[in-house]
Amino acid sequence: MAKRARIRCTNKTGRDNPHERITHVGGLNPDGTPWKRSIDQAIKDIESNEWEFYVEENGRRVDVVCATHNGHKYIKTTADDIQPDNVLSLLVECP
């Protein structure tokens, strides 16, 4: 069974392409210490079924999934269509 983790923050580049903007995601471990993963690692974690990630805003929990656009893998919330800018765009910057 995959472990679940809430994504609470992201790091982004200044790129215009929304599929390449997010470089890292992060959150808090159960003991309150921060965690942070590169997008490449988060994608590997999701694809291997080792981890399931989600975001939560205003009491609404949405799963994070992998997608591919023009041969480039990225993450998005299940509530998004092709643009990965729904709930993930609302998160604060990771330290």
Could you explain the architecture of this structure?
There is one protein chain. Helix content is 9%, strand content 47%. The protein is mainly beta and 95 residues long. The protein has one domain. It has a 4-stranded mixed β-sheet. Strand 6 (60-69) and strand 7 form a beta hairpin.
What's a concise summary of this model?
The protein is mainly β and 95 residues long. The chain has 1 helix and 8 strands. The protein has one domain (3-93).
Q: DSSP strand (E) fraction?
A: over 45%
Helix-strand sequence: EEEEHEEEE
Major sheet: arrangement of strands:
1-5-6-7
Rounded to an integer in angstroms, the radius of gyration calculated over CA atoms is: 12 Å
List the topology elements:
Elements: E1 3-6, E2 9-12, E3 22-28, E4 34-38, H1 39-47, E5 51-57, E6 60-69, E7 72-77, E8 92-93
Parallel strand pairs: 1-5, 2-8
Antiparallel strand pairs: 2-3, 3-4, 5-6, 6-7
What attributes does this structure have?
95 residues, 8 strands, mainly beta, globular, 4-stranded mixed beta sheet, 47% strand
